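P.,

For your records, the input lines for the assembly:
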Amino acid sequence: MSKNFFSTCFIILLTFSLNAQTESDAFTIKKIYETALTESNAYVWLTHLSENIGGRLAGSPNSSKAEDYTQRILDSLGVNSSFRQECTTNWWHRKKESEVNMYLSPNVKVQLTSTSLGNTIGTNNKEIKANVIEVHGLNELKKLGEDEIAGKIVFFNRPMDAKLVNSFNAYGGAVDQRVFGAARAAEFGAVAVLVRSMTNKLDDVPHTGTSIYEDGINKIPSIAISTMAANLLSETLVSSPDIMVGLSNDNETVPNQKNYNIIGEWKGSEFPDQIIVVGGHLDSWDLAGGAHDDGAGCVQSMAVVEIFKKMNYQPKHTIRVVLFANEENGLVGGQEYAKLAKENGENHIAAIESDAGGFSPRGFSADGLSSFFDAKFKKVSDWFNLLEPYGVSLSKGGSGADISPLKDQGPLLFGLRPDSQRYFDYHHTPDDHIEAVNKRELNLGSAAMASLIFLIDQYGI
Amino acid sequence: MSKNFFSTCFIILLTFSLNAQTESDAFTIKKIYETALTESNAYVWLTHLSENIGGRLAGSPNSSKAEDYTQRILDSLGVNSSFRQECTTNWWHRKKESEVNMYLSPNVKVQLTSTSLGNTIGTNNKEIKANVIEVHGLNELKKLGEDEIAGKIVFFNRPMDAKLVNSFNAYGGAVDQRVFGAARAAEFGAVAVLVRSMTNKLDDVPHTGTSIYEDGINKIPSIAISTMAANLLSETLVSSPDIMVGLSNDNETVPNQKNYNIIGEWKGSEFPDQIIVVGGHLDSWDLAGGAHDDGAGCVQSMAVVEIFKKMNYQPKHTIRVVLFANEENGLVGGQEYAKLAKENGENHIAAIESDAGGFSPRGFSADGLSSFFDAKFKKVSDWFNLLEPYGVSLSKGGSGADISPLKDQGPLLFGLRPDSQRYFDYHHTPDDHIEAVNKRELNLGSAAMASLIFLIDQYGI
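Structure tokens returned:
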């Protein structure tokens, strides 16, 4: 018999076995989706986390309750072990919410719906009253200079760009005003800053979020106002540029609190030393229950284990559910996790984060060290015809804030990418509650993550 | 010079011009999306339609108001002409909403949240009180027979299949109970039917929708109960199979009302006789404002003209916005439109319908006469790399109820396919209001339709 005959037989057998494999993988993925949609408790966990525990800002008493609760859930799922990694956090604490008033005359004031930004100092409830100068970006401050800014309240009013289809890109293009506005404006003698809330929606809901002071620069209060309030203030300034605005609030920062990364580890049967991380961050802002940000990511990550257990699927690689401490106000948990992984010489082959809301999943974006990235990306891309029926695709891009410190240790990093349209309707607001989460959309996110992890587990990276 | 040289030149020129064309198309589509996201009034129109006018069941006074309003909007957009096509409809009218009670004892009753199904007769407010037999499908009736059914209330309790990712498939697999339940059960002597609401969500919201009587079969009342009420009734029947249920309601049908398809026609500059239809249905159920079903489809269709006008784009083919009469309760408008198109010898090259909610668009499904369908589908598929960046794909499948009567006249039919997870949270309920619609998601649907129509207009079908 000729060599050709054997080659042909080999190709036929290979094709047959590849097709059979694909069919079997498709069957498993279907089962993952069905299990997620009909048997997962993710929505129940999320209800407890966001409504019974509630807002859980790093360092707060609630943040400890959330740690205890999720560790208990992980234990109940039958992971091999659960453990904690200690992180030191500062508890920034909203003692009295901000009040901002526009003075139409000395005796007539209009209140602007507002919220203090994370880490901001307070006014000790005393009113700071000053003229306002509106700007649309950090770079305008230098042009205006101290003459125009000193003694005034700087009002950052550049909206998120509504033209961008992906609302995260619009957020990325506007959020520097919130994060660095106070520090930059203080350099020119501003007495406080007001920041337009980070949302495409025109409503009267204020959005908090982190703001950062810098060493050697005067700390001034930093407050967000709703988009409707921002429009009103801006319009008023056109006709009455000398209008006075008063603002007050009261906050404190309690240093050196303890928080923990909560980790559930399920040992792989064949490659126990090769670790796949799936996670979200356990902390949330204090205004609501952090249902989308990032309670959803936490419960979806726990649901990956739940789904596999219900299916009696035993992973070959070690799966670690990691619920990271303090993403919102310092990224301490993600950094600590990466540091310990390095010190312990652990081998992470992949990490997946869900931190973009519990909405219908549309895909994953992948990131990694440039050295082998293209080859790894190509390999993973080839699997995605199996996820196409579920509307889940793969693209290159960022992954997640908590897992990105792992990047230089070589794993392929993935971010779950849900539909982004509604995220910034709720993000960091008093509305980020369980009612804003659709149970099926949440479960589909768990299913997408479990499916990707199943494929990584089957074929390695 | 050789023939090869010319061939090579030709290929280079062709490639260059194709790439330039693709770039130019991509630029136009980007502009369509930006215009939709920042300049469209679709959300304002929808607010008026769903909240100021409100529910607009065929034949009702509100249905006439909706016709006048949308024709006025179409005229204001600068179409060449707007006109109406008369349709005769019956106005089924909910005079008094249903009340359904479970009698735990003669004096202790528990109310089950309910709503009368469309077209059902009423009880003239008198209570029908009977035992209940629970079934999970029409086919169970024959097995049970008259002995088990006569004199009883038949309770159809097969849920939508939560395992199915696309909720429209789950709806399609359960809705026969609502549509044909009363007629089938009456054949075996049932006195009324209760139907589990058509939704995957477990809540206390009742879902109405059409039910159909058949000639020669006794008409019995047909009432939907919420999924929570259905679970409660089912559980109660396990322990107390002989429990009595009482139901009452009052409805009337006013025959021979006038409704109209509302049509805005914008003549094409090069192929005025080749028509592209874009539409939705103007009628809605009466319990709420029909914001998703199908106010969204109507305003998105009008927005296609609005967007092109704002971009100064003059279509080569004639675009017709068609707001169809009475989809919900008889499909009269769609049938009338197709009939007149045939009588007038019109040439429809494509029709696009949006009737799956104003959620984030994920694609289109395409349908058509089998003769040239594959070739046409292939041609259109090739354009969709231009829509990939917007998460919009093409698949084969159904199009829309109102445009499908056009099918045998040869046009390619498209249905807009938004994300389906939330649709049946609101469908035919008191909750289908403007608050359930996200403005950006709505506008993205308009943009997807305008983009597809732009490509059809450029390249024909």
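Two observations worth noting. Chain B has a mean pLDDT of 96. Residues 201 and 287 of chain B are 18 Å apart (CA to CA).

Regards
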